[in-house]
Amino acid sequence: MTEGPLLFQPLKLRDVTLPNRVVVSPMCMYSAQGGLANDFHLVHLGQYALAGTGLIIAEATAVSPEGRISPEDLGLWEDRQIIPLGRVTDFVHAQGGLIGVQLAHAGRKASTYAPWRGRGAVPPERGGWDVIGPDASAYNESFPQPHAMTTEDIAGIVGAFRQAARRAEIAGFDVVEIHAAHGYLLHQFLSPLANSRTDEYGGSFENRTRLVLEVTRAVREVWPHHKPLFVRLSATDWAPGGWDESQTVVLAGLLAREGVDVLDLSSGGLTPEQQITPAPGYQTPFAAQVKAAVPDLTVMTVGMIDTPERAEAILRNGDADLIALARPVLGDPHWVQAAARNLGAEHTLPAPYARGTRTT
Predict the structure, then answer these.
(1) Residue 358, by phi and psi: left (phi above 0), alpha (psi -120 to 50) or beta?
(2) CA 260 to CA 298: how far, in whole Å?
(3) How far apart are the C-alpha atoms of 239 and 281, rounded to whole Å?
(4) CATH, residue 260
(5) 227-246 burial by CB neighbour count: b if 16+ within 10 A, else e?
(6) CA quadruple 313, 315, 319, 324: dihedral positive or negative?
(7) Beta bridge partner(s), residue 339
(8) Which cofactor does it need (predicted)?
(9) Within a domain: residue 255?
């Protein structure tokens, strides 16, 4: 029996050892210009290192300009974006922390406004662009109309993920996560509700999963062997006829064989027809299913895990190996410190902050 809270037990992933199981989930901040990180990103992500969070994952970072969700997204599609992100990774490492980046392409959900700037498609005169998708169907009537991708376009996407992963290594990231969830491009290929193709990338399960596996293979080829690779999936579309848990379990096994170390399980985002009834820990059963079916794969859960006690219970039940947090750490960037106090765990902080843990 492990002594002490599992939330504060280390976890080794290849040659990277996380000091605890708390992960800052990738959260879009819509605060970049030209895809370049700036002081906002340094402070925003750096604060989690000062709190002693186990792993920080930077927001969805576009592998091509047209892959941005909004004009203000981060990017790794060109070399000049490496150094600004390197400032962030250098700071995190100087505090003894670990940081990853989520590589993404928004597909038909690209060229849209940041939530507080508007709704739907951004017009060309405001910086919008043409978008692409598996077919020509839009997410809804207010989103851009995509161009159906050619096989040449698809090959270009695989290459863009590969090159972005190379840049992520140069920038000093410890982890790369491939974003195949929340209705963005790779998820669009997975789901019959967004993919009506009749070629080798549509129709059957084998064809719909082809692009995700090709991207994973390309990234794993260039991402250093000693560093872990994550993939984020939406376990279900929450809509009839869409991607679902049974398909997720099968894909999880295929991803493990491609060298994926951690599956980050969320859900939804593919269709406005989704029917979700959120509740605390409502996505954790998906993680438990995958963990039972693919025991060699490390599994991360996310979604309304609002208290340290709930996070600890998930780990104790064996439902997941890592806990990803979004809104809780936006509300309290030092959530992990409070969790250590609540659970009676030892927790190491950078020296300037360690004084705050003294009780006398």
Answers:
(1) beta
(2) 9
(3) 20
(4) 3.20.20.70
(5) bbbbbbbbbbbbbeebbbee
(6) positive
(7) none
(8) FMN
(9) yes
Residue pair 112/122 in contact (Cβ under 8 Å)? The answer is: yes
Main-chain phi, psi angles of 17, to 5 degrees: -115, 115
Distance CA 4, CA 25 (A): 24
Bridge-based pairing state of the strands 99-104 and 175-180 = parallel
Categorize the per-residue pLDDT at 356 as very low, low, confident or very high, splitting at 50, 70 and 90. Answer: confident
pTM of the model: 0.97
Q: Is 17 helix (H, G, I), strand (E, B) or coil?
A: strand
Catalytic residue among 48, 113, 184, 201: 184
Nearest residue to 36 via CA among 3, 71, 7: 71
- Integer Cα distance of 184 and 51 in angstroms: 31
Structural domains of the chain, count: 1
pLDDT at 359 over 60: no
Structure tokens at 242: 């869409």
Query: Where do we find the tokens 């894909």?
Result: 251
Domain assignment of residue 1, yes or no:
no
CA gyration radius, the chain: 19
Amino acid making up residue 144: P
Range of the structural domain that residue 287 is part of: 6-351
93 Ramachandran zone, left/alpha/beta (phi>0; psi -120 to 50): alpha
**pLDDT digits 0-9 by tens, 82-110:** 999 999 999 999 999 999 999 999 999 99
Cβ-Cβ contacts under 8 Å for 64 (sequence gap 6 or more):
75, 77, 105, 156, 157, 160
How far is 165 from 114, CA to CA, in rounded Å? 25
pLDDT tens-digit series, residues 230-272 = 999 999 999 999 999 999 999 999 999 999 999 999 999 999 9
Q: Could you tell me if residue 360 is inside a domain? A: no
pLDDT of residue 46: 98
Q: Among 128-132, 336-340, 350-354, whose mean pLDDT is lowest? A: 350-354
Asked whether residue 246 is domain-assigned, the answer is: yes
Q: Show the DSSP H helices in the chain as ranges.
A: 39-50, 82-94, 151-171, 185-190, 205-208, 210-222, 245-257, 284-293, 308-316, 327-331, 335-343, 351-354
184 in catalytic set: yes
